[in-house]
Amino acid sequence: MENRAVYSPTTEEDPGLTRGARTGLASHFSLGWLPLHQRVLKGLQLLLSLLAFICEEVVSQCTLCGGLYFFEFVSCSAFLLSLLFLIVYCTSVYASVDAIKVKSSEFYIKLGTGCVFLLASIIFIFTHDRTSVEITAIVFGFIASFMFLFDFGAMFYEK
């Protein structure tokens, strides 16, 4: 019995020039939904909340751990929410959802995240053990919270 009748070729033929440079995941990625200043703000929010979370994770021991745990939760949540909105705006997901709902959600999430991050940073000031890592985390937390609140305020001046 000849194997050609049972098995078909398993390799894909050379597609030629039909495929462009942007294939796979790259074809779904676009920076066109966000203006440059919004990309910078969202990138800073993402970076600063990640740095605050990393600095907080390096803390090896604490006396009053409640503030540390609250700061940990808030900084991680802020990082994940920033990442979520960056993914929505920079992929084809934005084209498939209602833009007004995305803007409305972002409005409330920016305000809530900025206020809660500010509160967590203030609480962490009063409960930290005065190590350099904790102070660095608090500084990143304050800067990140102000970035969220600045981005929230900037929504009122958009065209």
From TrEMBL:
Protein's UniProt keywords contain DNA repair: no
Matches recorded under InterPro entries: Marvel, MARVEL-CKLF_proteins
Domain MARVEL: 33-159
Localization: Membrane
PROSITE patterns hit by this protein: MARVEL
Keywords assigned: Membrane, Transmembrane, Transmembrane helix
Pfam family, one: MARVEL
The protein, known as: CKLF-like MARVEL transmembrane domain-containing protein 6
Organism: Heterocephalus glaber (Naked mole rat)
